[in-house]
């Protein structure tokens, strides 16, 4: 039996591959390498380069490797990009996921773990949000994820098929052992961008909006360490196999930090200076999003081990330094 990880050459997927291998699973990775990297895939996993919408390829992987579960990370993740190019997001995130789900159902794969997002809620205020909260996405990105959740829900009602939709809050940090990290080129996520700026890979960092109704006027997010996030996936997979019950669960710590608090943390933890510039609001940004993760803790028995912003930033920065070394002319000589 094997687990098929789509997007396993990407940021979160590559961490998941290591975690699955450590848990003794056989892992097959499907990634078209549009944003992921071949070198990011753990050597013990089999990488196939291709698209999740390629029914023939996915069917043959399922059959040849006795796949009993799919963990689906492949997708586009940048909120502003989804506003500029919504059709790309509805294609990559919704249409191709629908095809993948159909391929899973037709080939008898009963367990499906899906990368959903806190973006399905839209702006909900500083109070931790529960899964039962109404979903009103502020962006096509959030809507593309919500549509896929709906497809999963209906497929699970109609077929011998169950799913876990994990709603990620703001994922950051890197593998504490330094095996993988966030390597995406042209990344836009706050902690990644701030670490790049701290290292001098970019000149300055912009704060998008200082007039929000929050204590310091900047947006509040619940930052979760990628290692804790992938652990929630392991629990979700175990729960699906054992109970056969579908589940939607938030993955966050229940503690929000403003953009300025994050930047202060980056300066403190790295000992570097940052050239911070104040800019206008970024379209599609929710004011505050913080998780209530009682369900993941209660039903899945999830116990985060890295719920500390300093540690998240330290691991992200350390990975950024590593990338700099890998890309330096000396390293490639
Ligand atoms: N930000 C800046 N400057 C930057 C980058 C980001 O001020 O250079 C701000 C953003 O405006 C926002 C906050 O930092 O207020 C976090 O932005 P990110 O781009 O890091 O992340 P998002 O909140 O836009 O989106 C992420 C994930 C989604 C997830 C969402 C949930 O990409 O999948 O968090 O809150 F749904």
Ions, cofactors and other ligands present here are:
uridine-5'-diphosphate-4-deoxy-4-fluoro-alpha-D-galactose
Return the string of H and E elements: EHEEHEHHEHEEHEEEHEEHEEHHH
State the distance separating the first and last CA atoms.
41 Å
Q: What strand line-up does the widest sheet have?
A: 3-2-1-4-5-6-11
Secondary structural class: alpha/beta
Number of helices: 11
The 3D shape can be described as: globular
> How helix-rich are the residues, as a percent range?
40-55%
In the CATH hierarchy, the third-tier topology of the largest domain is known as Rossmann fold
- Biggest sheet record: 7 strands, parallel
Annotation, overall tally of beta strands: 14
Stretches where pLDDT is under 50 for at least 5 consecutive residues are none
Full CATH superfamily name of the largest domain? NAD(P)-binding Rossmann-like Domain
What is the number of domains? 2
Beta-strand residue percentage: 15-25%
- Radius of gyration using CA atoms only: 19 Å
Mean pLDDT: 96
The CATH architecture designation of the largest domain is 3-Layer(aba) Sandwich
What is the level 1 CATH name of the largest domain? Alpha Beta
Q: How is this structure best summarized?
A:
The protein is α/β, with parallel strands linked by helices. The chain contains eleven helices and 14 strands.
């Amino acid at each position: 039996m094997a687990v098929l990880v789509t997007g396993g050459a990407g940021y979160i997927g590559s961490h998941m591959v290591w975690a699955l291998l450590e848990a003794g699973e056989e892992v097959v990775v499907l990634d078209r390498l549009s944003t992921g990297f071949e070198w990011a895939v753990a050597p013990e996993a089999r990488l196939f380069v291709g698209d999740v919408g390629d029914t023939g390829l996915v069917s043959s992987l399922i059959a040849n490797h006795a796949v009993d579960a799919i963990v689906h990370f492949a997708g586009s993740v940048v909120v502003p990009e989804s506003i500029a190019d919504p059709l790309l997001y509805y294609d990559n995130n919704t249409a191709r996921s629908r095809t993948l789900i159909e391929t899973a159902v037709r080939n008898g794969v009963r367990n499906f773990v899906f990368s959903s997002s806190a973006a399905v809620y839209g702006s909900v205020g500083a109070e931790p949000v529960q899964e039962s909260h109404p979903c009103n996405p502020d962006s096509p990105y959030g809507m593309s994820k919500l549509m896929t959740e709906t497809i999963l829900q209906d497929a699970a009602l109609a077929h011998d098929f169950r799913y876990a939709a994990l709603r990620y809050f703001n994922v950051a940090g890197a593998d504490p052992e330094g095996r993988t990290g966030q390597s995406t080129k042209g990344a836009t996520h706050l902690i990644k961008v701030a670490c790049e700026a701290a290292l001098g890979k970019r000149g300055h960092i912009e704060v998008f909006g200082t007039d929000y109704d929050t204590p310091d006027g900047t947006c509040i997010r619940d930052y979760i360490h990628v290692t804790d996030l992938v652990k929630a996936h392991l629990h979700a997979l175990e729960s699906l196999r054992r109970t056969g019950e579908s589940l939607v669960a938030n993955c966050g710590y229940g503690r929000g930090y403003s953009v300025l608090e994050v930047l202060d943390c980056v300066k403190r933890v790295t000992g570097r200076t940052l050239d911070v510039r104040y800019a206008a609001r970024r379209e599609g940004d929710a004011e505050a999003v913080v998780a209530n993760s009682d369900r993941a803790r209660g039903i899945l028995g999830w116990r985060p081990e890295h719920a500390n912003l300093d540690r998240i930033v330290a691991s992200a920065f350390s990975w950024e330094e590593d990338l700099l070394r890998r890309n330096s002319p000396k390293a490639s000589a």
